Amino acid sequence: MSIEVRNLSKQFGQFRALNDVSLHIETGELVALLGPSGCGKTTLLRIIAGLEGPDSGSVLFAGEDATSVDVRQRQVGFVFQHYALFKHMTVFENVAFGLRVKHRSQRPSEDQIQRKVHELLTLVQLDWLADRYPAQLSGGQRQRIALARALAVEPRVLLLDEPFGALDAKVRKELRRWLRRLHDELNVASVFVTHDQEEALEVADRVVLMNAGRIEQVGTPRDVWEQPATPFVYGFLGDVNQLQGVAAREVWEGAGLSLPAPGLAQAEAQRATAYVRPHEFDIERYRAGGEGIAVRLSHAYLAGPSAYLELAREDSDAIIEAEVPEYLYRELNLRDGEVLLARPRRARIFAVQP
Known about the structure:
26% of the residues lie in helices and 35% in strands. The protein has helices spanning 41-49, 91-100, 110-123, 139-152, 169-186, 197-203, 221-226, 231-236, 326-332; strands spanning 3-12, 15-25, 30-34, 56-61, 64-65, 76-79, 157-161, 189-194, 206-211, 214-219, 241-248, 251-254, 257-260, 270-276, 281-285, 293-303, 306-313, 319-325, 339-344, 348-351. A hairpin with a 5-residue loop joins strand 17 (306-313) and strand 18 (319-325).
């Protein structure tokens, strides 16, 4: 079932959580709502679920207006960050809960409940824990049980709010791969909230970047990483260096460099910033007349196949962070204090907004 939100706005007192947000999610799509704390992503998720009502705008499921439909009638499965399992119930009873509290006319028979719960526990690979209590489970196991409980009512939409946020890094990585495989089997529209860029880029079909109650960009993980639409997206998705300069006639100049600036075709120079990721710099030893920014190596460290360099610009107090292959770092035999040239292979130029 598809999900569509149209022109949603929501305010809490003086705080505007959502500001004219519109989004369409296809059936079977796994979408990440990504952004910093307070950007509106959880509010958007709760409005889709029916746990909050918008001040204006509408929510449509499969093309039908569901804005005023009670949360119990929306057939939405919701998974919270902190599991929300019933401590006094076994794993089996937690998963069965949603089935047992259905209206008598819709409630499955006891045999059907038994069969359904065992199917779900097998699906999340925890059927052997049916008789245990939540306190006897690991964090990762509890979150999988919470997901099984959400799936028990056969939701048309699956919503997850920071589902792995309370888990350690290794367990998080294992569970997000598992979620991706599980979602592909279920083929329902799924939306998950996260502030973890790596999680969103690894798991989602599309990523929705949010900031200050608005959507900054929607696209595939590759799209948003390779073609950030705004300075915010560039800065939020990983480390980035900012070089200040001016642009005119589609050329940016600054830091002793000239770079292409597509889209900035005005004749009069305007302030503009070049965004360069650490791995987009070429590094070489300094030579007079060489093209690049003169920098001094302040610090370097190796991590796996890469060397990470902290470079102090010679013409200012600014720091440039660069990433080069480990083999190149060793070939150059770089030493702290050495003067180098840093030259961007690729940069994205944005005009500075007045």
